[in-house]
Amino acid sequence: MGDEECVIVVREFDHRKDLASVEEVEKRCEVGPGGKLSLFTDLLGDPICRVRHSPAFLMLVAELSSTKETVGMIRGCIKTVTCGKKLYRNTKTSDPSEALPIYTKVAYILGLRVSPSHRRMGIGLKLVRRMEDWFVQNGVEYSYLATENDNQASVNLFTDKCGYSKFRTPSVLVNPVFAHRLPVSNRVTLIKLSPSDAESLYRRRFSTTEFFPRDIDSVLSNRLSLGTFLAVPRGCCYTQGSWPGSDKFLSEPPESWAVLSVWNCKDVFRLEVRGASRMRKTLAKTTRIVDKLLPFLRLPSIPEVFRPFGLHFLYGLGGEGPSAAKLVNALCAHAHNLAKEGGCSVVATEVANREPLKVGVPHWKMLSCNEDLWCIKRLGEDYSDGYVGDWTKSPPGFSIFVDPREF
Predict the structure, then answer these.
(1) For residue 5, is pLDDT > 60?
(2) Which of 149, 206, 313, 326 is the most exposed place for a label (fewest CB within 10 A)?
């Protein structure tokens, strides 16, 4: 290849002329190792679908100047989140209502792809740096991304060449959607909150959680958010019919309660597992048939994941009290049933490794990832008030808020 053919041009994605070439690069990048299962993503004809619901977003493509061939791409989005908290009125209490969130402007990098035939040419590095330029122009203080711990090429690019450091290792918990509905404990009352009530509850109780989005109202009112559900012990004074609102609830809460919200990823993208043998597919189908015919046995069944399938993402998981984990379990059963009605094959969530409520989330280890790797880099020092110092050097907390717009 001549030197003139090696000139790489990075520019903004143009849906009209780049759609087909971008989809082709995606396909080439998702070819898994021979003989092994691989996860493919169908973006349903919208390459920006996984960032377009953020306050600001951008997609860049890299092309050869001579042939105009697309050889790489990157997506990024910008928002404001909590990076820490501080107490006010000189109080020393650990009550979250007695603390103020410290916000910072962050950017998230998603979907960096470089065509296999054009790797080791510095294209990935060039795309990252151009995206970071856009971040800086928009006042971003920190840039971060998620990657698989064992994706050594990606980890090396960001940590060795781009100056990112390993930051958090949350767990991605995935559970199959069975052919039968899951029972919700009769000791639990479920209450669906309005978006405004959910916003009030989240802001008052979880706004100091790391990565809590300041525009939580936009998340909760988005068409993809299927609802926020609160679980309380049956017999307490709160029910759907007598719900007094979040303010009253938080002033007189029961001993234990839990909350989570559901996001419909199925209308954004589909996933597909490829590379399975005929025997594996037959075995999976058999488990589904048995599960459907004999639901009372509660036999584990493998959902239809060998063709495009949808998922629901559970976010905003939280709660208080000694029975909070059991209440989370009931909420997850309800979310499973919503996913079944919605034609999804799995439900997923992502929580901090040290999250106390993690034990209440049912999941299959074979589908889940115990340590997703988040890397972070500080780009500037002009946004937050300096109280936290350098966030990249802060120790992990017990909880983290995972924005469904970036899953």
Answers:
(1) no
(2) 149
User: pLDDT averaged over the chain?
Assistant: 90
End-to-end CA distance of the chain: 38
| Alpha carbons 62 and 9: distance in angstroms, whole number | 6
3-state SS, one letter per residue, for 55-114: CEEEEEEEEECCCCCEEEEEEEEEEEEEEEEEECCCCCCCCHHHEEEEEEEEEEEEEEEE
Over residues 289-298, the pLDDT tens digits come to: 888 888 887 7
Q: What is the distance between the alpha carbons of residues 92 and 254, in angstroms, rounded to a whole number?
A: 24
Q: What angle do CA 166, 153, 349 make, to 5 degrees?
A: 55
358/85: higher pLDDT: 358
Q: Which numeric CATH code is attached to 3-170+371-406? A: 3.40.630.30
How far is the C-alpha of 247 from the C-alpha of 201, rounded, in Å?
Answer: 7
Assess whether the region 3-170+371-406 and the region 173-360 belong to the same CATH fold: yes
8-12 β-sheet, strand order: 8-12, 56-64, 70-87, 99-114, 142-148, 372-378, 165-168
Q: Tell me the C-alpha distance between 307 and 304, whole Å.
A: 7
The residues, any chain, with a CB within 8 Å of residue 90's CB and separated by 6 or more, are: none
- Can you tell me the mean pLDDT for 20-39? 75
Tokens of 40: 């493919």
Nearest residue to 351 via CA among 325, 318, 323: 318
Residue 95 in this model has a pLDDT that exceeds 80: no
Q: Are 76 and 51 in contact (CB under 8 A)?
A: yes
50 within 8 A of 26, measured Cβ to Cβ: no
Read off the pTM: 0.92
pLDDT at position 97 over 70:
no
Q: Is the pLDDT of residue 277 over 90?
A: no
